[in-house]
Amino acid sequence: MTSSDGSSSDGPTVPVPSTSFSPGLPGADDRQRYDLTSAAERRVLLAQALARRCRVLNDTPLALLSVLTSDLPGEVVELTLLTPQATHTRRARPHLAPQPGAVRVHHLDAAALSGESTIDRWYGRLPPLLEGLTVVAWAGRFTRDAIDQSLELQGRAPSGLEIVDLQQWTFETMQALRHQPYRPDLPWTLCPYGVQPPDRTSSRSGAETLAAWLPRLLAADITDPLSEATLTRSLVEQARRSRPSPATSALT
Question: What's the pTM?
Fold first, then answer.
């Protein structure tokens, strides 16, 4: 199954424009320097380029958003919003029963959610909490689509949320450097920063992981610029250790 963030290790190469990039993205000089470095040095250069791409996040206070969903894509079954003032976590009973694949991931089946309110009963309390804040998520488009689908299935209007999509920003930066042709997942992205991946059965853990990562992201604080081979081995070992209890979420 494709992961919730749409990542794939064997997807097609995405063409990269040769002359211009969006503001804040690396240019030709960056790419030339990048092509001449080792794998570990490339991770440092990628971190520096990503920090420049994301520095606009220093301009406003942030609200960090993370959800678990009923499918890929699907409805929200748990949402956490972490603001400078507080952390808010709510579960929601979806319109359609969670799919088996998602339940194996986060263990929230129809029975576990039967006593929860539907999202339309409490979502209206969230927008006032976002005033003056920039909303950030790892897979921002996926997160917004899950919220909107949940609201629409309950007969409500879409959220209208604007969410900074850190996965997309990372992917755009990687494309600009021609780092690799596939969309990054969160564990791979976090590894050089020394930040542990979230407990993927918990949306709160997802938001708290972003809170731990963002200061290091914005400072390009790479603590362990491992080679690609070492990164791959570490993720394989992590996956092997986690097999007895498949605690992963439908989203970061």
Answer: 0.76
